[in-house]
Each structure stands twice: as C-alpha cells, then as structure tokens.
Design goal:
By secondary structure, the chain is an alpha+beta fold. It has two domains: about 20-55; about 60-110, Roll (SH3 type barrels), CATH 2.30.30. The protein has two helices and five strands. It has helices spanning about 20-55, 105-110, and strands at about 65, 70-75, 80-85, 90-95, 100-105. Strands 4-3-2-1-5 form a five-stranded antiparallel β-sheet. A hairpin with a 4-residue loop joins strand 1 and strand 2 (about 70-75). The longest helix has about 35 residues, at about 20-55. The radius of gyration is 29 Å and the shape is elongated. The protein starts with 20 loop residues before the first helix and ends with a helix. About 5% of the residues are buried.
C-alpha cells in the first residue's frame, strides 16, 4: 500500500569482482590525481617558491608594492618587517611576506 515508495529488487552479484577489471578500475582515479597535481598543486608550489625568493632578496632602496596596494621605497629591512616610505617623511611598517612585487627602478617617479 505504499504509493510513494517503489519496491527494490536485488540483482544477481557479478561472478568475479576482483579479476582483471580491478586494475582497470584504478586507472581513472589515478589519472584524476595526476591531473590535479599537474594543474593545481605544482603551480601553487612554484608560486610559493618564487614569492619566498622575492621576500628573501628584499634590500634597502627597492621600490615595492604590497598586497594591500601600497607602493613605496624600502628604507629599513628587518628580520620579519620592512619599513616602506610611501610619501616624503611617511613610513609604514609591513611584514616582509606582505610584499607582493619589486617594481623597476623609477616606477615611483612616474606616479
């Protein structure tokens, strides 16, 4: 008398489930993992290495852009922080990891 629920009928079990089809069934998940690695994980690791190298190479006098969009010249470099001069006589202290890019010399004069 269940009008909304259909009866479920079981099908016969396959004879050999772990035969030669077992290895063929793993090809698709392994392929997905490889695609995920080469298109997502590997490029992210490369970007992290490049950013780490950029942060380690910061020196006094570099013109930089922070992740917040501030642009200025580095006046002092510490272990974890740098002081960036954003205007004449105005310095801002930011974390070294917040530096997004080192700009070419003379970029600030164009602004």
């Amino acid at each position: 008398m269940n009008f909304f629920i259909n009866d479920a009928w079981a099908e016969a079990a396959p004879a050999a489930a772990a035969g030669p089809n077992g290895l063929a069934g793993l090809i698709f998940p392994i392929g997905l993992i490889l695609i995920l690695y080469f298109f997502m994980i590997r490029p992210q690791v490369k970007r992290q290495k490049a950013h780490r190298a950029l942060v380690e190479s910061l020196k006094k006098g570099d013109e930089v852009q922070t992740m917040g969009g501030l642009m200025g010249k580095i006046t002092e470099v510490g272990e974890n922080f740098v002081k960036v001069e954003v205007a004449d006589g105005m310095e801002v202290t930011v974390r070294r990891s917040a530096v997004e890019a080192v700009m070419p010399k003379g970029t600030l004069k164009e602004l």
